[in-house]
């Protein structure tokens, strides 16, 4: 296992370099000159050129990339174009809210999706199964922004039960329960797709597992239904569901960008939207690389979880 992890970490290095090259190219090829955003509308060409030099945009793109990569290897991500503050503290200050949102979403999704998938499989062909299957298709199809705006209108504007956005109330103490109140709607919006998707995977795998010979043998031995489910069925059905963590994590990151913007959640997603609007290249590069690292690490953890759930899986 240690050799496998080491090999995966080593292969991640060239992957990250290629991602950084592609991201740097796309960011710098976007239309417009960032320097023009940070000068007066009537600025002269000399003033714009001076701003380009101050931002480090006067050098050829390969030179800019090599300089950025050299600094990034020492965790120096440069300074934000818009605020002139170091990028790393800005990213770290926005990281915790995003981790709270995404972690709560994954936890909530698994708590709801796994039981729904099991119930749907055990009630296969009944009205309960049809209802849950239909609900899963709706959850997969509905866009985040549409669901978010709808929930804000119902529960915040009309009923006044929940806040419209933010992480805490203006002037509030920022306590645990205050954050939870602000977290409810974003988590529901962000987890709708994952609950629907995971429950569908769980249903299909549980139906397949229930048809296996070892499940029939366990039933014939007179074991309790709970024992059969937890010791024999659930462990084997979890492997495809675990896969969803790795395959759907990029979608979760992308969905968090939209959701944070809708609910004014002070995380990396909202920071990314602001950086795009302001053409803040250092911020965009930092967020892109952080997202890439998270996805690569998550896929490694998924492979490790395979071996934990199913001891028959060995990594040589």
TrEMBL record:
Protein's membrane topology? Multi-pass membrane protein
Q: Which UniProt keywords apply?
A: Cell membrane, Membrane, Transmembrane, Transmembrane helix, Transport
Which cellular compartments is it found in? Answer: Cell membrane
List membrane-spanning regions: 9-30, 95-119, 131-156, 176-196, 283-309
**Which InterPro entries has this protein been placed in?**
BPD_transp_1_N, MetI-like, MetI-like_sf
The UniProt entry's GO CC annotations, sorted and at most eight, read:
plasma membrane
Residue ranges constituting the ABC transmembrane type-1 domain according to the UniProt record: 95-302
Report any one BP term from Gene Ontology. Answer: transmembrane transport
Principal localization reads membrane
Q: Name one Pfam family in it.
A: BPD_transp_1_N
- CDD domains with a match to the protein in the record: TM_PBP2
The record's comment on protein family reads: Belongs to the binding-protein-dependent transport system permease family.
The protein here is known as Peptide/nickel transport system permease protein
- In its UniProt entry, the species of origin is given as Marinilactibacillus piezotolerans
């Amino acid at each position: 296992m240690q050799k496998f992890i080491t090999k995966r970490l080593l292969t991640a290095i060239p992957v990250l370099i290629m991602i950084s090259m592609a991201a740097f190219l796309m960011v710098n090829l976007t239309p417009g000159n960032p320097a023009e955003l940070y000068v007066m509308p009537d600025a002269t060409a000399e003033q714009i050129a001076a701003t380009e030099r101050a931002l480090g945009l006067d050098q050829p793109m390969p030179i800019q990339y090599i300089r950025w990569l050299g600094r990034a290897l020492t965790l120096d991500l440069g300074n934000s174009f818009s605020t002139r503050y170091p990028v790393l503290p800005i990213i770290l200050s926005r990281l915790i809210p995003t981790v709270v949102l995404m972690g709560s979403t994954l936890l909530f999704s698994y708590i709801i999706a796994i039981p729904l998938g099991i119930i749907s499989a055990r009630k296969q062909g009944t009205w309960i199964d049809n209802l849950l299957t239909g609900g899963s298709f709706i959850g997969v199809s509905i866009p985040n922004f549409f669901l978010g705006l709808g929930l804000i209108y119902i529960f915040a504007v009309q009923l006044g039960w929940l806040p419209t956005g933010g992480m805490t109330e203006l002037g509030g103490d920022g306590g645990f329960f205050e954050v939870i109140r602000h977290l409810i709607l974003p988590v529901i919006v962000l987890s709708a797709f994952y609950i629907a998707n995971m429950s569908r995977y769980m249903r299909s795998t549980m139906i397949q597992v229930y048809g296996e010979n070892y499940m029939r043998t366990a039933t014939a031995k007179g074991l309790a239904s709970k024992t059969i489910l937890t010791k024999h069925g659930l462990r084997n059905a979890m492997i495809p569901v675990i896969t969803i963590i790795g395959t759907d994590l990029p979608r979760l990151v992308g969905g968090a960008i939209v959701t944070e913007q809708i609910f004014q959640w002070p995380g990396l997603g909202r920071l990314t939207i602001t950086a795009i609007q302001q053409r803040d290249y250092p911020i965009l590069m930092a967020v892109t690389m952080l997202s890439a690292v998270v996805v690569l690490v998550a896929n490694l953890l998924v492979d490790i979880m395979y071996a934990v759930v199913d001891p028959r899986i060995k990594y040589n």
